[in-house]
From TrEMBL:
Full protein name: Amidophosphoribosyltransferase
Pathway stated in the Swiss-Prot or TrEMBL entry: Purine metabolism; IMP biosynthesis via de novo pathway; N(1)-(5-phospho-D-ribosyl)glycinamide from 5-phospho-alpha-D-ribose 1-diphosphate: step 1/2
Keywords per UniProt: 4Fe-4S, Glutamine amidotransferase, Glycosyltransferase, Iron, Iron-sulfur, Magnesium, Metal-binding, Purine biosynthesis, Transferase
Cofactor note: Binds 1 Mg(2+) ion per subunit. Binds 1 [4Fe-4S] cluster per subunit.
Pfam family, one: GATase_7
Function: Catalyzes the formation of phosphoribosylamine from phosphoribosylpyrophosphate (PRPP) and glutamine.
Keyword flag Cell membrane: no
Length: 464
């Protein structure tokens, strides 16, 4: 995450594994989730089954980081050759243990386990419909709505994947799913491909993961991305694919490339690191400035800062030291401590900054408070000028597809123009990446959702 809490958060990461040879998969899922920890630090969980033994699901989940929730003893109790894991940061549904995933349902056809990344835009209507027919919900998350619809469709379907295909006809919005039935692992991506999902293989074990970096963490070979609208079914005989819905115009989340994904991931054929360097280059072309040093706000601004330096010819350097031991539980009980939270997480290198004109690169400005404090750090360290460059356009609109971008009133760019924001954060100049140049950072190879910047939503916004 960024140096403070004033950043958009991705709400989930999913990881699944199936070894037809019968080896336990929980340790691999643990390491996969560890690699996806950046996608959610609120809660996590692992559920496993045994395709060669009794039809039962072993589950452990709780609030906390992967390293806090699991230890060697707990992993040893999760014996099974098929499983799914999840890391969560809530965007839809409360922050509570009940909403931790994976979700496990016991119903007339057996058991169903599901992990979900994304948000539905028709979740409220679907939930109400289910409640009126007698369904009782244990969570406030969209995932339970999806699970109920799959379970209902399974009553008349010939297979779990057929039930998933039928449920896809009813749900709308962003969803990358891993569904575990007693004998199958199923990966699903919504027709627009909002959220990433990919397939990997190591020896006899197949994997499904939100990002390719998680496959690297378990020594798996990247096979391919799950395509938008595709259902991938993994059984003991191999991988099967189907597209139950008509292909739609895709709307990949552009912010995966700007901020969410790990730099070492490759999503839909595009390297995340390279896309951020291109964003920095484009920033330098759009907003040139005379300066002595280009620096990134760690960690997310560093790659774009390198790109800005390469394009502008201004030297790239390190201006901040980050305290990596300040976790998600960092307590800020008073206003004074809230204001000093950035200083606890970041410190400026005075001998690097003093007497220099600085170009400071970050990936976004949400409320503006954090950016103002970081600019202040540079000035106190002796910077003569601070020019802020942002490797995304101004946030002006909320996201309904699995990102916790606040409502319009909380977004500084929704209430102020660029010159006003520049004054509020205390910078000498401010430049954002233009909306129309977003396609440049992904080389024009994907059709992406940029609604949080442009206000042009690829599907109708939720009524509630």
């Amino acid at each position: 995450m960024g140096p403070a809490d004033d950043k958009p958060h991705e709400e989930c990461g999913v990881f699944g594994a199936y070894d037809p040879a019968g080896n336990d998969v929980a340790p691999a899922i643990y390491y996969g989730l560890f690699a996806l920890q950046h996608r959610g630090q609120e809660s996590c969980g692992i559920a496993v089954g045994d395709t060669l033994g009794p039809r039962r699901i072993l589950l452990h989940k709780d609030m906390g980081l992967v390293s806090e929730v699991f230890n060697e003893e707990r992993l040893q109790k999760l014996g099974g050759n098929i499983g799914v894991g999840h890391v969560r940061y809530s965007t839809a549904g409360d922050s509570s243990p009940q909403n931790a995933q994976p979700l496990v349902l016991n119903y007339i056809k057996g058991t169903l386990c599901i992990a979900h990344n994304g948000n539905l835009v028709n979740a409220v209507e679907l939930r109400r419909e289910l409640e009126l027919s007698g369904s009782i919900f244990q969570t406030s998350a969209d995932t339970e709505v999806i699970a109920y619809h799959i379970a209902r469709e399974r009553l008349n379907a010939k297979s779990a994947e057929e039930a998933v295909a039928s449920a896809m006809q009813k749900i709308s919005g962003a969803y990358s799913l891993i569904v575990m039935s007693p004998r199958k692992l199923i990966g699903v991506r919504d027709p627009m491909g909002f959220r990433p999902l990919c397939i990997g293989k190591r020896d006899s074990t197949y994997f499904l993961a939100s990002e390719s970096c998680a496959l690297d963490a378990v020594g798996a070979e990247f096979v391919r991305d799950v395509a938008p609208g595709e259902i991938v079914t993994i059984t003991e005989t191999g991988i099967f694919s189907e597209f139950p819905r008509e292909k739609a115009t895709t709307a990949h989340c552009i912010f995966e490339y700007i901020y969410f994904a790990r730099p070492d991931s490759i999503i839909d054929g595009i390297g995340v690191y390279e896309s951020r360097v291109r964003a920095g280059r484009e920033l330098a072309r759009q907003h040139p400035v005379e300066a002595d040093l280009v620096v990134g706000v760690p960690e997310s601004g560093n790659d774009a800062a390198l790109g800005f330096s390469l394009e502008s010819g201004i030297p790239y350097g390190k201006a901040f030291v980050k305290n990596n031991y300040v976790g998600r539980t960092f307590i800020k009980p008073t206003q004074l401590e809230r204001e000093s939270s950035v200083r606890i997480k970041l410190n400026a290198l005075k001998k690097v900054v003093c007497g220099k004109r600085i170009v400071m690169i970050d990936d976004s400005i949400v409320r503006g408070t954090t950016c103002a404090q970081i600019v202040s750090l540079l000035r106190e360290a002796g910077a003569t000028e601070v020019h802020v460059r942002i490797s995304s356009p101004p946030f002006k609109h909320p996201c309904y597809f699995g990102t916790d971008i606040p409502t319009g009133g909380q977004l500084i760019a929704n209430r102020h123009n660029e010159q006003e924001i520049c004054t509020l954060i205390g910078a000498d100049s401010l430049g954002y990446l233009s909306v129309k140049s977003l396609s440049e950072i992904i080389q024009g190879r994907l059709s992406c959702c940029d609604a949080c910047f442009s206000g042009k939503y690829p599907v109708a916004r939720p009524k509630h």
